[in-house]
Amino acid sequence: MKQCPIESVVLKGCTQIQDRKATSMPNITQLLSEIQQEAESASFPIDEPVYLAAGLNPTQPILYGGNLNSQLCFFARDLGKDEVHASQPLIGAAGKLVRSGLYRAITQQTPTKSTDLQVVLDHVLLTNTVPYKPIGNKAYSQAVKKRFRPFIERLLVLHWQGNKIITLGNEAFDWFTPYTEKGVLQEFFKRSDRYSASIEITIVAKDNTGNLHKKPVTLMPLPHPSPLNQKYYSQFPQLLQDRLAKVLSL
């Protein structure tokens, strides 16, 4: 791997930081505004008390955290209470496992303070299938996911500069089903090595003028790092390190 400063270690090479300037990307503020407009256009289950307790407008999207220039994205299901209060994805109990693992992979050290877990935001994009918190932590319906899919597509295709996606849990992985032939992802997920193997797909997005954009990405599924996931919870830290070792070696 090319020797780069820690700020760019997740990118393929140091020069890519200069090649992909934020000024050349579509306006992320406009995307956030359009998501909020969609949320206000028709009701759907939002855990409003959590937003109000955090001093936030419930229709204000929490779309992503981290660096749009990073090579790696962690893609999870949806937001929890901690994520709403912090206004960023993956910062609750499961998110801290992810951030801790990324910190170890990058620095070869164990995080000792909360600010260490914020450092990893320079090296990764964090996002979800829907940029809102569902009521009672119940997964959003397919109809809600479909409603917000075009915005997530635009984030991943038009704004994010990377192409490696680690999905967390079945629902996050299944979100990518429309971009493959029928049954392809389901067959991949039946493999015994699904948490070490990867699959190449092409995601698509339409810009505001209706033009279609395509982007090849590599999906690398992992189980969701929840204590409720008893089968894989204890294995998750090592599975994550194995994934990150491959990404960081590219």
How would you characterize this protein structure?
- The chain is α/β, with parallel strands linked by helices and 250 residues long.
- Helices cover 37% and strands 14% of the residues.
- The chain is built from 10 helices and 6 strands.
- It has helices at residues 16-19, 28-41, 48-53, 81-86, 93-107, 114-119, 142-159, 170-174, 184-189, 236-248, and strands at 64-66, 72-76, 125-128, 164-168, 199-206, 212-222.
- The chain has a 6-stranded mixed sheet.
- Helix 2 (28-41) runs antiparallel to helix 7 and helix 5 (93-107) packs across helix 10.
Mind summarizing the main beta sheet?
Answer: 6 strands, mixed
Q: Multimeric state of these chains? A: single chain
Kindly estimate the percentage of residues that lie in beta strands according to DSSP: 5-15%
- The count of DSSP E runs of length 2 or more, i.e. the number of strands, is 6
* Rg (CA only): 17 Å
Structural class: alpha/beta
**Regions with pLDDT < 50 over 5+ consecutive residues?**
1-24
Strand neighbour order, sheet with most strands: 1-3-2-4-6-5
**Helical amount among residues, as a percent range?**
25-40%
Number of helices: 10
Rounded average pLDDT: 89
Termini gap:
6 Å
| SSE series | HHHEEHHHEHEHHEEH
**Morphology call:** globular
